[in-house]
Specification:
By secondary structure, the chain is of the alpha+beta class. The protein has two domains: 12-116, ACT domain (Alpha-Beta Plaits, 2-Layer Sandwich), CATH 3.30.70; 122-253, Trafficking protein particle complex subunit 3 (Muramoyl-pentapeptide Carboxypeptidase, domain 2), CATH 3.30.1380.20. Helices cover 31% and strands 28% of the residues. The protein has eight helices and twelve strands. The chain has helices at 33-43, 75-79, 122-130, 136-154, 164-170, 173-176, 201-208, 214-228; strands spanning 12-14, 20-28, 47-55, 59-67, 88-95, 101-103, 111-112, 115-116, 181-186, 191-197, 232-238, 247-253. A four-stranded antiparallel beta sheet has the order 3-4-2-5, covered by helices on one side. A four-stranded antiparallel beta sheet has the order 9-10-12-11. Helix 3 (122-130) packs across helix 7. The longest helix has 19 residues, at 136-154. The mean pLDDT is 90.
Length: 254
């Protein structure tokens, strides 16, 4: 497995005794734009502490959280430079309201594949699920619903899956959403073996002395059933909550 790196989704920054600001630029979506915008800030001693882009066709949004404590010019003067760039459609900036902290004000709603999402910590999600830990039917149905939905949302119609690596790629939506890191180690439409590393649900198993990731079983059943147009049954062969290196699932078509 390749090295994994965390990525911040929730845009905020905390720094005591620093001057903080948020900048948003609406600009043409083409090579070099981000580099030019960042260079303007760098030339005047402004540090970018967070950056995200949202391309939406020919025009996209670029969000910066910056520390301008050591800037050699007033922030307003530096940012006004953007108005002279032909590829910039509009720009805005906002300085911190409270000392030491700034939250994004311009970016809303957070999206995944252009769909609005709500960001929730894994620990909080686990706590919510733990309230229903004895309702395995509920957990599995919830997972199945999410699996069916994700397949219909993120998998193009007519896609053909013939190899383990191809199914692994489609299941990467689990990784994008923060559920875990999937890998299909054996594949046929009749029977597949799927391992998931760093699966969030195994922590629920540890907390409740369970060794069965019911939600994920339901998710995989829904995803695979939607993908292949036939019913699947998924069972967990072994679980990381009992000391295994990962969770392993066996999917069989009915």
């Amino acid at each position: 497995m390749s090295q994994l790196y965390s990525r911040e989704m929730f845009s905020h920054y905390i720094a005591r005794n620093r001057k903080l600001a948020e900048v948003v630029v609406i600009a043409e979506n083409k090579p070099g734009v981000l580099a030019v915008l960042a260079n303007v800030l760098s030339e005047h001693g402004i540090n970018i502490v967070s950056c995200s882009t949202t391309p939406t066709g020919p025009v996209g949004s670029i969000f910066f959280l910056v520390d301008y404590t050591e800037a050699d010019k007033p922030l307003s003067e530096v940012i006004s430079t953007y108005g002279k760039l032909g590829f910039v459609k509009e720009y805005h900036y906002r300085e911190q309201v409270l000392p030491s902290i700034i939250f994004t004000n311009y970016a809303f709603p957070p999206t995944l594949a252009n769909r609005r999402v709500i960001v929730i910590e894994v620990e909080k999600f686990i706590k919510l699920l733990s309230e229903f830990v004895d309702r395995t039917d509920y957990l599995k149905q919830l997972g199945r619903y999410m699996g069916e939905y994700d397949c219909s949302m993120y998998v193009p119609e007519g896609v053909e899956v013939k190899k383990p690596s191809e199914l692994s790629e489609l299941l990467r939506v689990l990784q994008v959403k923060g559920f875990g890191v999937p890998e299909v180690v054996e594949f046929s439409v009749e029977r597949s073996k799927i391992v998931i590393r760093e699966l969030f649900e195994k922590e629920l198993g540890e907390a409740k002395e369970r060794d069965h990731c019911v939600f994920t079983c339901g998710y995989l059943e829904g995803f695979l059933s939607k993908l292949f147009g036939r019913e699947f049954r998924v069972e967990e062969e072994y679980c990381a909550s009992v000391g295994k290196p990962h969770c392993c699932f066996i999917a069989t078509s009915r």
